Amino acid sequence: MSECEICGGVGLVRVKSDAGLWVSRACECQESQAEDLRIKSARIPNKYRKCTLDSYWIDFTNAHESLNSALRTARKFVDAYPIDTKGKGLLFVGANGLGKTHLAVGVLQRLIRERGVQGLFFDYRELLKHIQSSYNPQVQATELEILRPILNAEVLIIDDIGTQKPTDWVWDTVAYVLNARYNGELSTIITTHFPALPAGKGQLTDPEKAAREISLGDRIGDSMLSRLCEMCIRVEMSGGDFRQSVKRASFGS
């Protein structure tokens, strides 16, 4: 890496303060390196590193209006953070291929670069496996040590919540994480392809169970779904596969 032409690689520059005194402050190159380090520390997968709000392209034929509305909500959230969001997060709900993860990562990257946020990205299944690893005697970390960054991250993305088969341990773990973040007034951004509806009530026959669409309430429990709806702004997304539409538009077909 070549030396910065402004600071000569030391990371500091001398500027005059409002009081007319010469003071030192971090050079822009140093600030840029700090941003890059925060992005790297956020554990954003490589395939999502280029996902920004500006690159969420929906200018294609038959794009559903809900996608444009979701993008507007994402931008407003960034503009309002952290004063007006007051610990609220975002819950992106919709079928696969609508760009839910793209928007979630786009929000996190903007917050990291523009607000200096310390964030974390976890796929839901990866998150549960990460926590379970504390039970492995070869892992030199306790469950609390593994959970601490997840519980304390200023902004946490949980991608594709509900994909893990529900068990008592899964429900208890999800409840612990979400309740801790709710009580700490920390923003959590969540994506799911399950409809954000309660579990089916009453006794259902096998054909009725097979015909009924599985809901997020079925996967994480109704009490946690209620908590999610309380701690997040719900963003419903509809339409055809966003990724396939963009590919077709890119090739001009």
Automatic annotation (TrEMBL):
SMART domains: AAA. Signal peptide: none annotated. The keyword ATP-binding applies. Residues 86-221 form the AAA+ ATPase domain. GO terms for biological process: DNA replication. InterPro entries: AAA+_ATPase, IstB_ATP-bd, P-loop_NTPase. Keywords: ATP-binding, Nucleotide-binding. One of its GO terms (molecular function) is ATP binding. Pfam families: IstB_IS21. The keyword ATP-binding applies. This is ATP-binding protein. It comes from Telmatobacter sp. DSM 110680.
